[in-house]
Amino acid sequence: MAGIKRKRQIFMALTLGLMIAIFLFSSQPGDESSSISFFLARFLVPLFGADLAQLIVRKTAHFTIYMVLGFCVYPCFDNRKKFWLGFLVCVLYACSDEVHQLFVAGRSGRLLDVLIDSLGSLSGLAVSCLLNNFIKKG
Prior knowledge:
Shape: elongated
Radius of gyration: 17 Å
Strand content: under 5%
Mean pLDDT: 93
Structural class: mainly alpha
Low-confidence stretches: none
Distance between the termini: 18 Å
Number of strands: 0
Largest sheet: none
Order of helices and strands: HHHHHH
Oligomer: single chain
Number of helices: 6
């Protein structure tokens, strides 16, 4: 039982750390965030052009960080509804993140980003749930 409690504490710490990281990324002014995205997107520019490459990098980042968040949130709960509780936490955090961006220079809150974040969360939750069930049966 102590091992389960310790595992939950670790995942709660990881979840909190990811939420802080998301908040810090969202606190970057638009021009700073764009320059970081373009630094990564430059490898895709020959294939897609600058605007589309930057869009791909930004939306992939949204999906990926929320997928990791969903993966980490799942073990934080101790009941049979933990998948949906985890999803609710992720969606509410995605909404709060987009509202936060409304107050950051050069940023905007977008419903599309909440949708992408939610899909990422669902993916991470599903992987975590499947992995948890596989370990329990194994």
